[in-house]
Amino acid sequence: MKKRKLVVPLLSLAVLFPSATNVFANPQKPVSIDKVEFVGMDAPQTKKEKSTMYSDATATVTYSDGSQKNFSLDYEQLFKPGDVINGKTAGVTHDVNGNVIMDTVTDPANPKPFISKAPDSNTLLSVNGKSGKLYLVNHFESVPSKIGNLPKSMALNTVQQDKKTGKLTVTDINLIDFSEDGGIWTPCAGSLSPWNTHLGSEEYEPDAKSHELNPEKSAVTEFARNYYHDQSIIGNPYLYGYLPEVKVHPNGKASAVKHYSMGRLSFERVVVMPDNRTVYYGDDGNYTMMFMYVADKAENLSAGTLYAAKWNQTSDKNGGSANLEWIELGHATDSEIKELALSLKFSDIFETTEDEQYAIKNGFKKVKTAGKAEWLKVKPGMEKAAAFLESRRYGALLGATSEFNKMEAVELNKEDNKVYMAMSSIKGGMEASSTDPVDDIRVSKINAGGVYELSLNKGLKDLNGKKIHSDYVAATMSGLVLGEDLPAKDAAGNLAHPNKIASPDNIVYSEKMRTLFIGEDTSLHHNNYVWAYNIDTMKLSRIVSAPDGGETTGLQAIDDLNGFTYLMVSSQNPGNVGYLSGLPSLGEKNSKK
Fold this sequence. Notes:
single chain; mainly beta; 8 helices; 39 strands; 37% strand; globular; PhoX; DUF839 domain-containing protein; signal
């Protein structure tokens, strides 16, 4: 009989809960877990608490025989950027040849590696099943630099698990190579696919139109020159803004591809439906769009059909509600879109004008995407290029809604056939506007944002009456868990209700615990928190506090990994203490079965 404990690890932080398969209330009579209830912690009060990543929450486990046990949530740090593991430094960035990029500007006589303070996305996975080796894929979203925009980093960490306590230890770090695709651009959130691969993201895709106007000075060119160590090169914006997929092989090596056929946008966390073909995205930024991808084959995202949503509002209450319709943007394969990306520039795909009268007379359409209004017309024969290289602009031309604001992570509740979507702030394009080209979304402003619920149906057709070959098509959308703005800053420094969510970003769902975990990226709370929201009871509990200034990132809920349940969490760019310095390992508070 295994002893159980509740632990919390970080860069990756993990909260361990008892597994239903390994917890026994009576050694002679095995029982199952009936439910898990989180008992939240208070907001941090002291200076130490405010500058520390910690959990002081508990979980009450009710068993099928009616008995209950209380478990304290502990916190354990796995590692932090700058740590040296097996001779390798965490959080560094690499050039095209896999060499660490060094800072030779700050102290030329003593070069040091550029080190990110922005870890994001934790995907803990087992290769070869329960008896296999464990690996953790994590992102480093940004890198401070004095030499311009640097390539970002995605790492594969080798992990050992203590089979008795569940404690995780990172023993090695290796670069994940994206040299075949020009490096990795701003990797943000990520998820584990049903077929055990890591699905990442490239957030805030570079604007190809702006780049073409001044390519010598663009951030894409800075990125490329630092990546290739070639000051004559001009960057290509169409190489960035895609969904990367990482496969970890039995020998511990990782291979990576970018899925060009899934469209180009500001990717956040994606989630795959139970058919292993249908995928929903988060598109971060302002005036963004909701996308759905239906792959041709299960467990293969290299070819498929891309759709964009139209919001048909039914209510402006509780964050707004709508019926959703889907517009097909096109069908493509990765290889054909990558070929277009390598050969085209923005002006090859679109005609543009600033002359409104000329635009109206010559078939242009005014759209507003990524906060910019512009007159556009697709050049003849460039529809596929527009659909997959400029997905948001092309979707807007076809009538899809491009008014979402700070659309973040998405997640699946398989049993209830629901998808959850975080909107970090409900404002901007989501408010009523008489000046925008289109005004589909007209809801009240909530700076603190909210989480929406999407209901899935089968047998649906797209806006043109064509059958959508998926049984998991989102048909309705409505507010589920909302933040609440305060009229003025309170005594603790909060601009949003301290006992409600603010600026939800990362979200993950535990099927066994019927709990949605919500991580914040906000300046509206004095500290950022992770919350546990029970789907059935609607109880919201604060369970983790990040150091002040630090966003909570990298959420991953793992219901059972060799008898342990983990909640992975990171914090990026904390303010007062540097990244995770001085964080205590709270140890084992409860080792009862």
